[in-house]
Specification:
binds FE2/S2 (inorganic) cluster, two-stranded antiparallel ribbon, disordered C terminus, single chain, 11 helices
Length: 294
């Protein structure tokens, strides 16, 4: 007669990855590692490029807002030099660090995602295996101190959200000006992509637990605590997005990378941008920024 496996109180089988589950519980952690790992790898590569982040009126979201820039990387005519807030990178900028505006801005959205309640679940399970799934024995057995010790900084999440809401406004501004090329209103595939991207990232922020908390999540009882009607409506609005937060987290992450790939490809002249201006947005088709005295 086969001996029964060693178990913990409650019936969990002891041993890394051991479980009584019969379903493909491992599929979700593997997909998460592949998807988030690919997005991280691409985003890091793109952030270190420092050029081809703009095509015509389009600015990739990985480089927005462009606080400092290298004029040689801007691309020139009709482009978004006006996107740059404070001018050129200073002369003392260390030569071993690429003069890439993305390196200055990405820490904020990166911190928001790192501390997001959904992403915590994703990387605790998928990257750290603590545990890899419900009722599955994980790497750490009972020693997990989580957000009271090593991960105490996760509690800054709400402040990252407050800053990210400003970032959402900036992305809508970028989407808005992408409908104007050399002073003329028009529509390009890039404009539509930027608008969808800004909307997805706003949807991600609206579904944040901290956003929902702001408008009523902190109340124990809506009828007893008598919030305003507007507060209740905003809470219900946030709740709709909150219930879809995981899905929006995945879609918006992928779409940011897609937007960067699109604008980068147009800037390189690899693909044309279909637009009502009839303009070629490729950097190769424009005079160099230096020739324009930028
Ligand atoms: S952004 Fe996901 S919980 Fe706040």
């Amino acid at each position: 007669m086969a001996s029964s496996p060693e178990t913990l109180p409650g019936g969990h089988i002891i041993g890394l990855g051991e479980t009584r589950r019969k379903d493909n519980w491992w599929a979700s952690p593997i997909m998460t590692v592949v998807y988030i790992g690919a997005a991280l790898a691409y985003g890091t590569w793109a952030a270190f490029q420092g050029d081809h982040y703009q095509a015509g009126p389009y600015l990739t979201p990985l480089y927005s807002p462009t606080t400092l820039a290298d004029p040689a990387a801007i691309g020139g005519a009709g482009g978004g030099y006006g996107h740059v807030w404070f001018g050129n990178f200073p002369s003392w900028w260390p030569s071993f660090i690429p003069a890439s505006p993305a390196l200055l801005i990405l820490p904020l959205p990166g911190f928001l995602r790192l501390t997001c309640y959904y992403y915590r679940k994703a990387y605790y399970r998928s990257f750290m295996g603590t545990p890899p799934g419900c009722s599955v024995e994980g790497v750490l057995k009972g020693q997990y101190g989580g957000e009271t010790k090593l991960f105490l900084w996760q509690n800054f999440h709400r402040y990252a959200l407050y800053l990210a809401l400003i970032y959402n406004v900036i992305l809508f501004y970028d989407a808005g000006i992408s409908f104007f090329y050399k002073g003329s209103f028009g529509v390009g595939v890039g404009s539509i992509i930027l608008l969808v991207n800004a909307s997805l990232l706003a949807s991600y922020s609206f579904g944040c637990h901290s956003f929902r908390h702001l408008f009523g999540g902190r109340l124990d009882c809506f009828t007893c605590d008598s919030p305003s009607k507007a507060q209740h409506s905003t809470w219900k609005f946030a709740t709709w997005f909150n219930e879809r937060h995981m899905q929006v987290a995945w879609i918006s992450l992928g779409f940011v990378m897609f937007t960067d790939i699109y604008i980068r490809s147009v800037s390189h002249g690899i693909i044309p941008d279909l637009n009502t201006w009839g303009a070629n947005m490729s950097a190769a088709a424009r005079p160099a920024a230096a020739a324009l005295g930028l």
